[in-house]
Amino acid sequence: MATAPKTYTISGLSVELGRDRVKLGKVLAGVEPDQKKGERDLYLMKTVVDKLVDGEAIAAKTARDTADHKIKDVKSKLLEMDLMEKQGKLVPIEEAKAVVMDVMSAVRSRFLAIPTRLAKRMAGVQDPRKAKGLMDRAVHNALEEISNFNPSNLARKKPSK
Question: How many domains does the structure of the chain reveal?
Answer without folding.
Answer: 2
